[in-house]
Amino acid sequence: MLTLTTTKLGPLVARVVAADEVADDALTVWLCHGYGAPGSDLCGIAGEVVAQRPALASRARFVFPEAPLELELMPFAGRAWWHIDVGRFERALATGELERLFDETPEGMPAARKALRAALDAWCTATKTPYGRVLLGGFSQGAMISTDLALRLEEAPAALAIFSGTLLCRPEWTQLAPARRGLRVLQSHGSADPLLPYPAALELRRLLEGAGLDLRFVSFPGGHGIDAEVIDAFAALVAERAGVEGAP
Fold it and tell me: What predicted TM-score, i.e. pTM, was given to this entire model?
């Protein structure tokens, strides 16, 4: 049985979903929510994954850090890793300026990365978990910050999951990515995504595959979300990285 607890990891609040008894060398699945979502937004994924692969209850912990910024004028407790113009990518696609956005480092992103890294370090220290036993990932803006952090850690993470992310910081990511050759990556994107255009996801895929990362791309005929097929692929990746017997 999984239980949810809320804790403070360095500068960030985080929700942890785990069973009472977990192996000492358990995999940590670290997922960051998207822009405008509450900190609890992705917590349900833990139950979905364990329902598919029950052995993961004793082989993995799921951590959901809460972004540091609270958004005003939201109908619920929405949060952000940094402030963004929600319609900017859509407008750039319509005007042919999408390429220019790939090279930008959003204002506030370095500070968000610093906070996320501090939270991750606090978790790894407390649980004696090396980076190589952490599967990093996230949705939308959370996928962007997770990708950025995964490319900068001194040690490669266990894997990277990019749900409806996009290409940013292209000069830096292009330079950093070859050091992650062979890293397992699951990238997914809806072909009708109205917020982060599908062509931008394909550019990110090209960058990572060109650097030698072991990437599986799951496309689905939908919008800005996480499809059931994506959850299936993610459960398989978590099981494989956790060392669950019989995982594909």
Answer: 0.94
